[in-house]
Write a structure and sequence with these properties.
The structure holds 2 protein chains of 2 kinds. By secondary structure, chain A is an alpha+beta fold. Chain A has helices at 25-37, 58-66, 73-78, 82-85, 185-190, 195-203, 218-225, 253-282, and strands spanning 5-12, 15-21, 41-52, 97-104, 113-116, 121-122, 135-139, 144-154, 165-179, 206-210, 232-247. Chain A folds into 2 domains: 5-37 and 166-245, Gyrase A, domain 2 (2-Layer Sandwich); 41-162, DNA-directed RNA polymerase, insert domain (RNA Polymerase Alpha Subunit, Chain A, domain 2), CATH 2.170.120. In chain A, a hairpin with a 2-residue loop joins β1 and β2 (15-21). In chain A, α1 (25-37) crosses α8. The longest helix of chain A has 30 residues, at 253-282. Chain A is flat, with a radius of gyration of 25 Å. Chain B contains 35 helices and 55 strands. In chain B, β11 (207-217) and β12 (220-229) form a beta hairpin. In chain B, α1 crosses α23 (626-633), α13 (371-399) packs antiparallel against α15 and α29 packs across α30. The longest helix of chain B has 29 residues, at 371-399. Classes of the chains: A alpha+beta, B alpha+beta.
Chain lengths: 283, 1182
């Protein structure tokens, strides 16, 4: 295997793209999966309704609250881990952040209003909604929504709301081999959706380009099999892997990867310990 | 290009505007509303007014000598005010306290009452020729069809409708009876008053050809058949007379005395005359004159009566029983003669091969009977009974010499009750059932489809292959796809979107125009001339015969020009005067039918014809221009204006035979007479949901049409205020990304029933074999396909004789059938559960105590105090949920009524059923989290993984196209049009995908989520609209160990609702018998079922018993001396023995132990070998 290297291709907003060389697919995939399953974040897990006269049922509002994305980086250090908290009932301050909502409209109001996530009063100033304009429900004149909710740390394995990333993919790097001399007019029309390839074809007669980032190569493959049969070939190389993570916003993307590797490390350590114990017992 | 009207060409989207305005103008329940409105404004009045004067029937009384020969002259005259406002009240109900209370449909649904208006009539009492009393009295409650002219809802704005708790887009067209919504389903019927000729069925030896007609007048149906017999003569069969009358005799009885008269009435054709000879020969012996003919008839009708009476009977028969639709007066006899002659003519033409057999399945020979027509039938019966009761009461009053008071004489409940029970049960006269049905409110489509259903009353048992087949004339009238599978296939149909059902135009007005303005020559005139000269006038041979609603009315020299003139007048709105939507004269259809030498003009004005709108084409150019479309769009032109100007016209199946209709604008040539308004309008509401329907194998469209009615969605906006016994709501319904334009006019886009899902077609894990689908758990976590299930439980405090009544309360724990404290825990002190409480199967929702059963007034004084019963309402076994709404109200009887709605959140799970819009259904086979799902290069994981085997053999190409189109829609963020026949070109969609860097066939590189490895083969992944169907495991899953047994047989109960066992059936038993595992059979069929021990006396074979008091077993014959053995048998066997005894059959049972029997078989040697001892005193195990 080639030399081990990890390059950051891009960090933009909530997403991060890494180019990884020298690691096996299985290894990087385990990180990819851990991002989705094992990196803890904060999400609402309990909601108690004192009053709900809106047209949306309690369960539906609770479900929506659960999907509210809360800033989790500080919470990660402050609160106890999911393994402990899932056994504990709220309101235990070691585990739970309290969110409170009481919104009502008088009968004399003319129009209704959307209750938004920003209307939640949160007990911990370090926890805040990432998208405060997310609507929860519509309140019509004369209606009231009064509830208290509790957020705790959890893992994506339990419910998708605790996943720090909405997209976490590992992919092989597509490599396009081209021969400009054989390119036809139809072929150029076909690959019009891939400007970098069109540019490359113009500048160089023969060569290869590697495609990085969120680019769908299915159109390219179609062309390579039909109109560009002679001039273009697409291969997917497992030697250069790309790990692309698009976070929900609960954690910074770097943090997500860091936490995932830490979980992996912990898991390997505990596996190591188990094996050591087995060996010790065996003798 | 305004102003350049001449060069305007129509586009497909222009036609769409015209079609949209057609549907929006008429609405989707128009046929019901039109029909009911005619009943309310016309038929009902006619029926009441036809009651005439009600006088006491003195004759009967006279025989009993109760009254003198001449009673006092008393009569009652009932008439309905002409104006609708005067005749009918607003919808209202009379409360138990006696005051009248206006009601809305919402209140009716919730309080279980009937949405009805009161019908008032002016009742006059005339005594001795002097008006003694005159009053406006209520004579009936008439159930109101929602959104008809007597329903205030039809005049409400959207805001007002919302204010009264209605869904503003609710189509109406149904009734609310005792709180239940009922539709009167349209009934298909063979066209009445039309002659249908056909060859006799093989097997009817004496008849070769026949002409049949069902003559109907005011609900009376009488059949007339003219048969051509083997000997060439014609004979007539009339219902109510079990005797064939020779045709010529009947004609003579009708006043056609001369043979030449008969011959010319039949036809001017000498060929036909020759065929009439055998009939004339036959008749000469029987009757020469009219007198003879009447005598001949009279002899059969009233044998043995005096001659005058016989003749009178014959005349009465001819007037009332023969072809009553033509008339019942003596002056109508001549017309009847012409009709009969025409029947004869057609039979002979058929025989001579001049005319083909009539096609019974041609839709011109069918009529659709709608709510108004069907209610009129019940109403007519009810009014008759009302009149009879009134008459009887009147006689009673007079006999008892009481003062006659109208208020106490007129009973309004007679008609009301009959109407109500008919609609509530669906039972009509002549044992017809299922005429009215409970409205299907599963989702918006199922509702509309139910309102547009047409049922053929043909028996389900017989094959009727032709009747079930799709017929050419169904085009644009009935949906080619939407029909159930199985016994009802092709008999239950649904209206196409374009279908229009004629309301009926007055025949008299049109007849007058035909004679006076259009030059139709009456038959009489020509016939007289023919008789005078002895030969038919030339015109009679060359002219076309004119039929009005199937009745011959005369000749016209040039049929073609007659038809043309009528069409011209119709198209310029000069047939009737006023607005087309008021007089409906566009319904007058004309057809010129030429078969060889036969030239006939048909003019139809009757009701129940299935018509469809098309665009008129002249010289190869449609009369509809884009100018019109612009005006339509801006609202400056109404749809009716197009009809008024003859741009769009309605064709009935007869007239359509004269047309040449272009399907697409591009097909138009100068020969075309019409252009299709909207080709995909040939489909009904259900089939309209299918995108790319024209790319699917046709049965798949049929399956989808049935399945879309099971999808969960948003069935009505007012679902929170409704108390449907059970209903479903999809939490986040979506508008399909791949659109069908028809969905817009149907309203599906506002009340959808499904979601757009990302679907990959691939093999993955193997959990999607055999039509299973794999679901993404993460998507489910995010809320995909979540639904609510609602069930309403209701209870009321009923009153019983003796002042007893139910009481809604927490039942006393002392009651003998108290269910156990834990079930009543959640009740409030008033005995009703709190809202938002979580409940489980068995929990009491409404606590109720009822007085003991069978306790009538006479038993109240009994000394034994029988305790009350607990009749609490419990949540169904196996269900759970949260109490959603608790509603307290009172019924009209003033009884307390409690309704509790329980809601249950249904998150998709393994076993729940889903379907795309192409008849592709499947259950969830596995739920896989996103991290294990395959993903694309962009990180998209599918919501659904479908097995590729679902596609090839079923040929649902539409689904693949939808997937491609859906993908483009999702990427572009736009809707894609997939309307059948007119739509976005799929090649464009593919090209656009490619331009955006995607494979045009929606294939992609996928990675395996479990390993991270690439999946080399391209996988189709795109967006498909999926529907969640109401078949869910949580409703069906059930198992038990032991539990409830039936009272009679002591065998386990059956069915989930009764916590029943799972049947170990015959075939299962057979397999065990085949394996020879007797003990397993015994275990399943005896020990685990109804095992029971009987005590048999071995001396007499009777069943004995254990006497607990004395402490020993005894036998009915031998008492203690009996040789009692316990035997284990199925309880059902013991029951059989006792039933035999009850039938005076004495069953005897001989018992012996197994060992001794075995010993007998084996002999002493054998038994010793086996170590058996004889007479082992072992009893059968107990």
């Amino acid at each position: 295997m080639s030399e081990k290297s990890i390059k950051i291709l891009e960090i933009r907003g909530n997403s991060i793209s890494l180019i990884i060389e020298g690691f096996s697919v299985a290894y990087v995939n385990s990180i990819r999966r851990l991002i989705l399953t094992d990196v803890p974040t904060l999400a609402i897990d309990f909601a108690y309704f004192y009053d709900n006269s809106t047209d949306v049922y309690d369960e539906m509002i609770a479900h929506r609250l659960g999907l509210v994305i809360l800033r989790s980086d500080i919470a990660l250090e402050k609160y106890a881990l999911p393994e402990i908290c899932s056994q504990i009932e709220p309101p235990n301050p070691k585990c739970f952040v309290e969110l409170f909502l009481d919104y009502s409209l008088g009968d004399d109001t003319k129009t209704g209003v959307y209750v938004k996530v920003r209307d939640l009063k949160i007990s911990d100033p370090d926890v805040e909604p990432i998208y405060p304009d997310t609507p929860i429900t519509y309140i019509a004149p004369g209606q009231r929504l009064h509830l208290v909710a509790y957020a705790r740390l959890g893992r994506g394995r339990e419910h998708a709301k605790w996943s720090p990333a909405s997209i976490s993919i590992l992919k092989y790097t597509p490599i396009v081999y081209y021969d400009a001399s054989k390119v036809t007019r139809e072929c150029l029309d076909c690959i019009a959706g891939y400007p970098m390839l069109v540019n490359a074809l113009e500048s160089q007669a023969r060569g290869r380009i590697e495609i990085y980032g969120m680019i769908n190569t299915s159109g390219l493959r179609y062309c390579a099999e039909s109109l560009c049969k002679d001039s273009i070939r697409v291969e997917y190389s497992p030697n250069i892997l790309q790990l692309i993570v698009e976070g929900t916003g609960a954690l910074k993307p770097e943090r997500i990867i860091y936490e995932a590797t830490r979980v992996l490390e912990d898991k390997i350590k505990s596996l190591r310990a188990q094996i050591d114990k087995l060996e010790a017992d065996g003798k | 290009m305004a102003g350049s009207g001449r060069f305007d060409s129509l586009s497909a989207s222009d036609l769409w505007v015209a079609f949209k305005s057609y549907i929006n103008t008429l609405g989707l329940a128009r046929q019901h509303l039109d029909s009911y409105n005619v009943f309310i404004s016309k038929k009902l009045m006619e029926i009441i007014n036809s009651m005439g004067e009600i006088k006491p029937a003195w004759r009967i009384r006279r025989r009993q000598d109760i009254l003198p020969l001449e009673g006092p002259s008393v009569k009652i005259v009932i008439s309905v005010p002409e104006s609708i406002d005067q005749a009918y009240s607003k919808p209202q109900v009379k409360e138990a306290e006696g005051y009248i209370h206006p009601i809305t449909p919402y209140e009716c649904r919730v309080r279980d009452i009937t949405y009805a208006v009161s019908l008032y009539a002016d009742v006059k009492l005339v005594q001795d020729g002097v008006e003694a009393e005159r009053k406006r009295l209520k004579i009936a409650d008439i159930p109101v069809m929602v959104k008809s002219i007597i329903d205030p809802l039809s005049r409400m704005s959207e805001e007002e409708l919302i204010a009264v708790g209605e869904d503003p887009r609710d189509p109406g067209g149904y009734f609310i009876i005792n709180g239940n919504e009922k539709v009167i389903v349209a009934q298909e019927d063979l066209a009445v008053n039309r002659i249908i000729v056909g060859k006799a069925a093989t097997g009817t030896a004496k008849i070769t050809h026949s002409a049949k007609v069902v003559s109907t007048r005011l609900g009376v149906r009488r059949q007339v058949i003219v048969d051509r017999m083997q000997d060439g003569s014609l004979e007539v069969t009339v219902s109510k007379l079990n005797y064939r009358i020779p045709f010529v005799v009947l004609m003579k009885a009708l006043g056609f005395e001369k043979e030449s008269e008969i011959a010319f009435a039949v036809s001017p054709d000498p060929q036909i005359h020759r065929e009439l000879l055998p009939s004339f020969e036959k008749a000469t012996e029987l009757a020469k004159t009219k007198e003879d003919a009447l005598k001949f008839l009279g002899n059969r009708l009233a044998p043995g009566q005096p001659i005058e009476l016989r003749i009178a009977r014959a005349e009465e028969f001819i007037d009332n029983q023969l072809l009553p639709h033509i008339g019942t007066r003596p002056e109508d006899r001549r017309k009847k003669g012409y009709y009969l002659a025409e029947m004869a003519n057609r039979v002979l033409q058929l025989y001579l091969g001049l005319r083909p057999e009539d096609d019974k399945d041609h839709y011109s020979n069918k009529r659709v009977r709608l709510a108004g027509d069907l209610i009129a039938e019940i109403f007519r019966d009810a009014v008759e009974i009302f009149a009879r009761t009134l008459q009887a009461q009147l006689e009673e009053y007079i006999v008892q010499r009481r003062k006659i008071r109208l208020t106490s004489l007129i009973r309004s409940d007679i008609i009301s009750e009959r109407l109500k029970t008919a609609i509530a049960t669906g039972n009509w006269s002549q044992d017809r059932t299922g005429i009215s049905q409970a409205l299907d409110r599963t989702n918006w489509i199922s509702l509309l489809s139910h309102l547009r259903r047409v049922i053929s009353p043909l028996s389900r048992g017989q094959a009727h292959f032709e009747a079930r087949d799709l017929h050419g004339t169904h085009w644009g009238r009935l949906c080619p796809f939407e029909t159930p599978e199985g016994i009802n296939v092709g008999l239950v149909k649904n209206l196409a979107l374009t279908a229009y059902i004629s309301v009926g135009v007055s025949e008299e007005a049109i007849e007058k125009i035909l004679y006076e303005e259009l030059g139709v020559i009456p038959i009489d005139d020509l016939l007289n001339e023919a008789i005078k000269t002895g030969a038919p006038p030339k015109i009679m041979i060359t002219a076309s015969k004119v039929f009005l609603n199937g009745r011959p009315i005369g000749y016209h020299p040039d049929g073609e020009s007659l038809v043309k003139t009528i069409r011209e007048r119709r198209r310029s709105n000069r047939l009737c005067y006023g607005r087309v939507e008021d007089h409906r004269c566009f319904e007058v259809s004309v057809a010129h039918i030429k078969i060889g030498s036969i030239s006939e003009v048909y003019i139809n004005t009757d009701e129940g014809r299935l018509m469809r709108p098309v665009i008129v084409v002249e010289n190869g150019k449609p009369k509809l221009t884009s100018e019109h479309i612009k005006l339509l769009e801006t609202g400056k032109l109404r749809f009716w204006d197009l009809v008024e100007r003859g741009i769009i016209e309605f064709l009935d199946p007869d007239e359509e035979e004269n047309t040449y209709i272009a399907e697409l604008i591009s097909d138009l040539t100068s020969e075309h007479t019409h252009l299709e308004l909207w080709p995909s309008g040939i489909m009904g509401v259900s089939a309209s949901t299918i995108p790319y329907a024209d790319h699917n194998q046709s049965p798949r469209n049929t399956y989808q049409s049935a399945m879309t009615k099971q999808a969960l969605g948003l069935y009505a906006l007012n679902y929170k205020y409704r108390m449907d016994s059970h209903s479903y709501i999809l939490q986040y319904p979506q508008k399909p990304l791949v659109q069908v334009r028809n969905l817009d006019v149907i309203g599906y886009n506002d009340r959808p029933s499904g979601q757009n899902m990302i679907v990959a077609i691939m093999a993955y894990t193997g959990y999607n074999i055999e039509d299973a689908i794999i679901f993404n758990k993460t998507s489910i976590d995010y809320g995909l396909a979540r639904a609510y299930f609602f069930r309403v439980y209701s209870a009321q405090e009923q009153d019983y004789p003796g002042g007893l009544s139910d009481r809604i309360t927490i039942p006393s724990p002392r009651l003998y059938d108290h269910k156990g404290d834990q079930y009543y825990r959640k009740l409030a002190p008033d005995g009703i559960i709190y809202p938002e409480v979580e409940v489980e199967g068995g929990d009491v929702l409404i606590g109720r105590e009822s007085p003991p059963r069978f306790m009538g007034e006479e038993r109240v004084v009994s000394t034994v105090l029988i305790s009350n019963r607990d009749t609490s309402i419990q949540l169904r076994y196996g269900e759970s949920g949260v109490v959603d709404t608790v509603l307290l109200t009172r019924t009209i009887e003033r009884n307390k009524l409690v309704k509790v709605r329980v809601r249950d959140l249904r998150i998709p799970e393994i076993g729940d059923k889903f379907a795309s819009r192409h008849g592709q259904k499947g259950v969830i086979g596995m739920v896989i989290p996103a991290y294990d799902m395959p993903y694309t290069e962009e990180g998209i994981t599918p919501d659904v993984i479908l097995n590729p085997h679902a596609i090839p053999s079923r040929m649902t190409v539409g689904q693949l196209l939808e997937e491609i189109a859906g993908k483009l829609g999702a990427i572009k963020g736009a809707f894609v049009d997939a309307t059948s026949f007119y739509r976005d070109d799929i090649d464009n969609i593919r090209f656009e995908l490619l331009k955006l860097g995607y494979d045009p066939s929606a294939r992609e590189v996928l990675y395996d989520g479990r390993t991270g490895e690439i999946i080399e083969r391209p996988i189709v992944i795109g967006v498909v609209f999926y529907q969640r169907l109401y078949h869910m495991v949580s409703d069906k899953m059930h198992a038990r160990a032991t539990g409830k047994v039936q009272l009679l047989t002591r065998q386990p109960t059956e069915g989930k609702a009764k916590q029943g066992g799972l049947r170990f059936g015959e075939m299962e038993r057979d397999s065990l018998v085949g394996h020879g595992v007797a003990m397993v059979v015994r275990d399943r069929l005896l020990d685990a079922s109804d095992s029971y021990i009987i005590y048999v006396c071995n001396l007499c074979g009777n069943i004995g018993w254990y006497n607990r008091r004395k402490g020993f077993y005894e036998c009915p014959i031998h008492g203690v001396e009996g040789d009692i053995k316990p035997v284990k048998v199925p309880y059902a066997f013991k029951l059989l023995l006792q039933e035999l005894v009850a039938m005076a059959i004495k069953p005897e049972i001989k018992v012996s132990d197994k060992i001794s029997v075995l010993a007998k078989i084996l002999g002493s040697e054998g038994s010793q070998k086996l170590g058996l001892r004889e007479n082992q005193d072992k009893e059968a195990s107990g």
